[in-house]
Design goal:
It comes from Afipia massiliensis. GO terms for molecular function: FMN binding; oxidoreductase activity. This is Chromate reductase. InterPro entries: Flavoprotein-like_sf, FMN_Rdtase-like_dom, NAD(P)H-dep_reductase. This protein is of the alpha/beta class. The protein has a single domain, classed as 3-Layer(aba) Sandwich (Rossmann fold). It has a five-stranded parallel beta sheet, with helices on both faces.
Length: 183
């Protein structure tokens, strides 16, 4: 039986490279993983005043994460960090205290950028902020996808062979990581 992976896309942009990377990963993942893309459109801002009666969109997001066996974050880098929309999703999903939806779920991080550094700062930001309310974070292989601006055709299909190879290797490693932690 395949493990369900919630692929949380950290960008709202219609032509988001992160969304395209997430779709490419879903196509390249081994049969042991079923990747389900989770976009953050419509997820309202976290406000602790609302925790007693959380908004329906928070409940839905938390349930999506809780139903998954693992979580894979696919994020761009904004100003040497993760986008605010992704931080908000982590805040929503990690609450209330002690009941984080991410607990016990193996975590993967895929950062990307059309620039030369491939989102390395965003990935490091996630690695700093997730421990304590997430499951085990896969440390190796790390994946920082640079130069993604020309990796997809006008229909969003992956056309860069080198990137396809890297994504397939990462998906295989993540499948082994999830299997190790979800036996």
């Amino acid at each position: 039986m395949a493990h369900t992976v919630a692929v949380v896309v950290g960008s709202l942009r219609k032509e988001s490279f992160s969304l395209k990377v997430a779709h490419a990963l879903a196509k390249l993942a081994p049969p042991s993983l079923k990747l389900e893309i989770v976009t953050l459109h419509g997820l309202s801002f976290f406000n602790q005043d609302l925790e007693a009666t959380p908004p329906a969109d928070w409940v839905s997001f938390r349930e999506t994460i809780q139903k998954s066996d693992a979580v894979l974050f696919v994020t761009p880098e904004y100003n040497r960090s993760i986008p605010g929309v992704l931080k908000n999703a982590i805040d929503v999903g990690s609450r209330p205290p002690g009941k984080s939806s991410f607990l016990g779920r193996p975590i993967g991080i895929v950062a990307n950028s059309p620039g030369a550094l491939g989102g390395v700062c965003a990935a490091m930001n996630l690695k700093q902020s997730l421990p304590g309310y997430s499951g085990p974070i896969m440390q190796q292989p790390e994946i920082y996808l640079n130069g993604v601006g020309d990796a997809f055709d006008d229909k969003g299909n992956l056309v860069k062979e080198a990137l396809e190879k890297v994504l397939r290797q990462y998906a295989d490693a993540f499948a082994a990581w999830v299997d190790k932690h979800k036996k």
